[in-house]
Fold:
Amino acid sequence: MTLNGKICVITGGASGIGLETAKCFANAGGKVVIADINIDAAKQAAKALGDGHMGVDMDVTDPDAVEQGFAKVFNAYGRVDVLLSNAGIQMVKRVEEFTFEEWRKVVSIHLDGAFLTAKAVLPQMYKQGSGTILFMGSVHSLQASALKAPYVAAKHGILGLARAIAKEGGEKGVRTNVICPGFVKTPLVEKQIPEQAKDLGISEEDVINKVMLGETVDKEFTTVEDVAHTALFLATFPSNALTGQSIVVSHGWRMD
Ligand code: NAD
Structure:
């Protein structure tokens, strides 16, 4: 699977799944742009990947910041071949305890971010007659868990956005798919373990073994490498046979 000089933009690429996918894409010959709200970490990560890669400052919820970030990408490379819309956060509370601002913050990073970054690359991809957009969904794109209402709602919404883009982009050579990981031990998940233990009144061990891994086939976390390899498979897939799909990577937690 080779990316052979393709320009790949990864939002939220400075940490966790995005960072591992950046490494995987670079190893496969891609030129990677790490677009992240944490610009120092994005620049450092891009530098560690070697020459030809780039870190870009981008808050995916801010239309101006997204436009300016992609202007830098187009200036530097003149095109975008792969977008992985991956930036995300999690907040764990009961529905009635979320403030409206908290709800909007979670939904905005996932759903507005997916829309704004797709909107930024689509005209260029249509001009090129080719491109792949990958959205980072979740098992929570397909089912719910307690305490995660805005995240679950936004991740479900990403499926709809991806399917609409798949319909519009097919004839123009642009395809789009959603990756739906189970629990992956990144900072996003590490933070939730004590929070869920407190909210559910159970031990952190039970959060891991019962809540997070209870329904997997082997009680194992999905790894950042598992998700990165899936992203590479989708990024290099050569035809529209795979578009508008969601692929679950979850150690059997979710089976479709
Ligand atoms: P992470 O916390 O390690 O990384 C998230 C990255 O997003 C960070 O670099 C952060 O700076 C960046 N970010 C946050 N807000 C941003 C914004 N407004 N604009 C730009 N960048 C922003 O988390 P992760 O676990 O690697 O999560 C990456 C994606 O994978 C998220 O969309 C998450 O929902 C999804 N996901 C994670 C898991 C899991 O178990 N970790 C499971 C399923 C899906």
Q: What stands out?
A: The longest helix spans residues 100-128. Residues 185-221 form one domain. Strands lie at 7-11, 31-36, 54-57, 82-85, 131-136, 174-181, 245-249.
